[in-house]
Amino acid sequence: xxxxxxxxxxxxxFNNSACxxxxxxxxxxxxxxxxxxxxxxxxxxxxxxxxxxxxxxxIGSTRRFIPLGTVFHAAISMVLLCAAQVYAQPxxxxxxxxxxxxGLSTKETQEIVEAVEKTAYDTxxxxxxxxxxxxxxxxxxxxxxxxVSKLLCGATGNCQTWIFRKIDSTWVPLFEGDQAPIAKxxxxxxxxxxxxxxxxxxxxxxxxTRSRVTYKFDGKSYRTK
Length: 225
Known about the structure:
The protein is α+β, with helices and mostly antiparallel strands. It is built from 5 helices and 9 strands; from the N terminus they run αααααβββββββββ. The longest helix is centred in the N-terminal third of the chain and has 29 residues, at about 35-60.
């Protein structure tokens, strides 16, 4: 259900707050390096400066008294939206993104490998050595990004990629059927559909060009928009 809002303040300011809060919990739980933190706060401060200007224009354009509570909620929403934009950056998994670093149990690892085997176009000697895994926030649900690292990568650097959603205690792949797109990187959000962040697959078409395909959650799986 949409959150109620005061007249004069755009409704988009109040959208997706729960998803952004989940992202913030994920960010502080897993942590980043000092340089990453500095870069994130730099992006956040730039966004907030722009948001402040927008806020002042909105207040001036209404030409009437706006309750302090409404201004406060709008300000908080702007902070959350800025955080969402900073969080929604293209990601590419690296050597440090292992099943162990993601804190996955033996049962979870086996579950993920079995799902990957159904859509992978080749079979490595060791799935745990081939696959990289990283916990991500999908908004309303915990998520897991999985990418191959060697055998299942193409000449242009694109690698098969999977996004899993945790339902109860089970990891469920979000790409439908036999789909497992190849990607150089992927981006989750900032837009949200049915509680789950949109997933944009970014692939190298050639040495100089890239393509982008956005998937939206239809209530069960990701589909291209």
